[in-house]
Design brief:
It is found in: Cytoplasm. InterPro entries: DNA_helicase_Holl-junc_RuvA_I (IPR013849), Hlx-hairpin-Hlx_DNA-bd_motif (IPR003583), NA-bd_OB-fold (IPR012340), RuvA (IPR000085), RuvA_2-like (IPR010994), RuvA_C (IPR011114), RuvA_C_sf (IPR036267). The protein is an alpha+beta fold. The chain has nine helices and seven strands.
Length: 222
């Protein structure tokens, strides 16, 4: 199985890219959101991948983070959700948006994906809600980095790519907040729901502020 590709983009299609990996081209299907965030032809790129193999089909799907890849795999375990629908959901909401929608039971957000009806959206939320805390705890840090250099000459002479800016530190507030709430005795489901709500109100909260905001939401009312 192919779990990751690093190379350069040959071209970008409507729903896929062709990645040249040392002279071998791989067609990788991606969501609208992922496609929009990728660099142009000739630029270095790296994607986590998942391969779908059937009698009549062999397809690679690409993702910028392990969270996105894991949601893709989980979404396809739901009856009525195939690769196309899973990609549409991730393209509409993004990996973090899927985490929040499912943790909060917000099937209307899921239904916003193209081609999804209300019954299927409700099934997605009902079947995957218990999975949301685990996926959210993976955090935003497990993103794939583009290679520092790729082979770009036909004579296989390595040519260094332009220097790339150092990546920003990963935002670990979400998994750290979930861990802290678990240590305080809160169940995974209620902790995930509170964290998702707090991040929906302010996505830039650091760990301490996120924990405080979630605790306010979890505090008994009255």
């Amino acid at each position: 199985m192919i779990g990751k590709l690093s190379g350069r983009i040959d071209y970008k299609g409507d729903d896929h890219v062709l990645i040249d990996v040392r002279g071998v081209g791989y067609i990788v299907h991606v969501s609208d959101r992922t496609l929009a965030g990728l660099p142009g032809p000739g630029e270095a790129v790296a994607l986590y991948t998942d391969m779908i193999v059937r009698e009549d089909l062999m397809q690679l799907h690409g993702f910028t983070s392990l969270v996105e890849k894991e949601w893709f795999r989980l979404l396809m375990t739901v009856q009525g959700i195939g690769a196309k629908a899973a990609t549409a959901i991730l393209g509409t909401l993004g990996a973090d948006g899927v985490s929040r929608a499912i943790a909060l039971g917000d099937w209307n957000a899921v239904k916003a994906a193209k081609g999804l009806g209300p019954k299927t959206a409700q099934r997605v939320v009902n079947e995957l809600k218990d999975k949301a805390p685990t996926i959210m705890a993976m955090g935003a840090g497990q993103t794939v980095s583009a290679p520092e250099d790729v082979l770009v000459e036909s004579d296989a002479t390595p040519v260094a790519a332009a220097p790339r800016a150092a990546p920003k530190p990963a935002n670990m507030a979400q998994p750290e907040a979930l861990s802290a709430l678990a240590n305080l005795g809160y169940g995974p489901g209620e902790a995930a729901s509170a964290v998702a709500t707090a991040l929906g109100d302010d996505p830039d909260l650091d760990t301490a502020k996120l924990i405080r905001a979630a605790l306010k939401l979890l505090a008994p009312k009255g």
